[in-house]
Amino acid sequence: EPEVTQTPSHQVTQMGQEVILRCVPISNHLYFYWYRQILGQKVEFLVSFYNNEISEKSEIFDDQFSVERPDGSNFTLKIRSTKLEDSAMYFCASSDLQGLGTDTQYFGPGTRLTVL
Amino acid sequence: GNSVTQMEGPVTLSEEAFLTINCTYTATGYPSLFWYVQYPGEGLQLLLKATKADDKGSNKGFEATYRKETTSFHLEKGSVQVSDSAVYFCALYPREGKLIFGQGTELSVKP
Questions:
Q1: Cα of B81 to nearest chain A Cα, Å
Q2: pLDDT tens, position by position, B84-94
Q3: Per the CB 3.0–4.6 Å rule, which of A28, B91, B92, B101 could disulfide with A43?
Q4: Which of B4, B44, B59 is the best substitution to test chain A (most A C-beta atoms within 10 A)?
Q5: CA torsion sign, B110 to B18 to B34 to B59?
Q6: What is the pLDDT of residue A102?
Q7: What is the pLDDT of residue B85?
Q8: Cβ-defined contact of B30 to A101 (cutoff 8 Å)
């Protein structure tokens, strides 16, 4: 069964450093998402991406964040200058339809980001 | 606006007990509703879904019925196992854009 994959599973970084989190969505999917979950809190939407541009972003997704689909398979989330409060589990998701009521977002296993 | 409220956890049950995890929502329009499960140390897995009122989603012995009149999507299982121990998330999809999650309910099943 096709699945979303994410690398690395755990990333430790120093405050102020740049990190890139990588995702490989399901191959025939067209819509891509990033969510995050701070320990013990809700899963929160960050950004959605379709047709090589951002469709929607939350207020969390400020200028420090960017997303990119550098090739036909990868989808990346970059945090330019990490802060302590960026420590969280970051989930990538993908879906093949949107707005038709039958689409489902499939999630990757997550990348745990720890900012020291 | 759109929001999801789940019953607070943790919920602790003995094996073979009946499980109910309550989920209510607020939404404009006609959203799809989902339950996702997160096993310890793992990511989010889709458990079941329902796309319109009165639909029943089911998987692995879990069931939830989309109740528009009570704006609810409660998760039930007749007989839980130790392996069901996980965090369960109710989520709403308002037909475009992002999933909106509840706060999650931790379930612990003891042998």
A1: 23
A2: 999 999 999 98
A3: B101
A4: B44
A5: positive
A6: 54
A7: 96
A8: yes
